[in-house]
Structures are given as structure tokens and as C-alpha cells.
Design brief:
Strand content: under 5%
Number of helices: 10
Bound molecules: 5-(aminomethyl)-2-methylpyrimidin-4-amine
Helix content: over 70%
Order of helices and strands: HHHHHHHHHH
Number of strands: 0
Shape: globular
Distance between the termini: 48 Å
Length: 217
């Protein structure tokens, strides 16, 4: 079994809950109330801030230039089309682009800062892999519906599905699989803990979004 399949299996219940969630089902069906999407995007924009720092740190810790190139290209997507998606969507929804962090966003920011501060490539990859692989998993079944939705719903699916994004996830998994092979049992245990914590936080983030984050006008 691939190490990343082993890691996902450790978090199977939270993974299933995060990737087959009422929030994303409603988003894809076009029935998600705009104020719930607005609250989610305000909080997720805070997530993106920490994510960019973590991804940049992983680039700095990649074992070779070749190992860093796909991540650097993905960083340009996040800071380019994804960043403008947030700004356009929040404007269209009529809410501020800045908000204070809800507990679920703060917890994720904390985990990403911890992974970044560890200076350990495999712990950075554990969080990055969960974040992108879980989104590929929920979004892919809805990819052919995206066109029919308002752009603030449809583009969120498009950004997290398709061959290009699947390639990002394949790259992250391959990096983590390769790093795992060189780890001692203790270090593997730390990766397992970081991975399962991240999956739990993905689930909690969608649970909170579905309940409704407070929205800053
Ligand atoms: C909380 C969370 N996790 C993952 C992703 C995928 N980029 C996201 N936007 N937000």
C-alpha cells in the first residue's frame, strides 16, 4: 500500500465526512445559501494566507529543483487565479474580503504554522497533501456541473478538479510517499499525527461552514 493510502486509511471516518459533506453537496447543487458561501470564503481566505506561506516553505525544503517546480507552479495558481477568484466572489456576494478568524480557521492556521515552523519537509507535505487531496476528492464528482452554477460556486469546483489539479495532488502524494521511505518509525508517527489532525480540521471547517460562519458585511 502506498504510504499516502495508509495515511488516508488512518483518517477514514473524518476523510469520508469531509469529502462527502452536506456543505459541498449543497454548493454543487447550487442550493447553498449565499450568506453561507460568503462566510466560508471569508474564513477560507484566511486559510489561503497560511497555505501560501506553508507551500513556499515546502518549496524551500524540496530536495531538488525538479522536486520543487510543480509546487512553485501551483503557488502561482493560488496567488493568481485562486486569489482573484476570492476577491471577485467576495465582491459579488457583497461582503468584505477581510474578517477575523473563526476558531476552525484559527486552528488550521495554527496547524499550518506548526508544520512550517517544524522545518521538516514531510510534515509540511502531510498538511499540503490533505488540503489538496481532500478537495480533489469532493470536487471531482461535481466537475461537469460547474458551468451551470453562479461563478462563485462553479469556479470553486473547477479550481479543485480536472487534470491540472489532479496532477498537483499526484505530485504532492508522490513527494510524501518518497519522503516517508526515508523516515524512522518515530518520524513516521509524527507524519501520521499531522495528517490525521489535518483531516480532522478539514471536517471541522466544513461542519462550521455548514452551520454558518459569522459574516462580516
Ligand atoms: C480549509 C481548506 N482546505 C483545503 C483547501 C484547498 N485549497 C481550502 N481552500 N481550504
Amino acid at each position: 500500500m502506498r504510504p499516502t493510502d495508509h495515511l488516508r486509511a488512518l483518517a477514514a471516518d473524518d476523510w469520508q465526512a469531509a469529502t462527502r459533506h452536506a456543505f459541498t453537496d449543497a454548493l454543487a447543487a447550487g442550493t447553498l445559501p449565499p450568506e453561507k458561501m460568503a462566510g466560508y470564503l471569508q474564513q477560507d481566505y484566511l486559510f489561503v494566507d497560511g497555505f501560501v506561506r506553508l507551500l513556499a516553505s515546502a518549496i524551500a525544503h524540496a530536495p531538488s529543483l525538479a522536486d520543487s517546480v510543480p509546487a512553485a507552479q501551483f503557488l502561482a495558481v493560488i496567488t493568481g487565479p485562486e486569489n482573484t477568484y476570492f476577491l471577485r466572489s467576495l465582491e459579488a456576494l457583497g461582503v468584505a474580503s477581510e474578517a477575523g478568524p473563526a476558531p476552525e480557521a484559527a486552528a488550521f492556521q495554527g496547524l499550518m504554522a506548526e508544520a512550517r515552523g517544524s522545518g521538516r519537509y514531510e510534515l509540511m507535505l502531510a498538511v499540503l497533501t490533505v488540503a489538496e487531496w481532500s478537495y480533489l476528492d469532493w470536487a471531482s464528482p461535481h466537475a461537469d456541473r460547474a458551468e451551470a452554477l453562479p461563478f462563485w460556486l462553479g469556479e470553486w469546483i473547477t479550481l479543485h478538479s480536472g487534470d491540472g489539479f489532479a496532477g498537483v495532488v499526484a505530485y504532492l502524494r508522490a513527494q510524501l510517499d518518497a519522503a516517508w521511505e526515508g523516515l524512522a518509525p518515530d518520524a513516521r508517527g509524527e507524519v501520521e499525527t499531522m495528517f490525521t489532525r489535518a483531516v480532522r480540521l478539514e471536517r471541522a471547517f466544513f461542519d462550521a461552514a455548514w452551520a454558518g460562519f459569522p459574516v462580516r458585511p
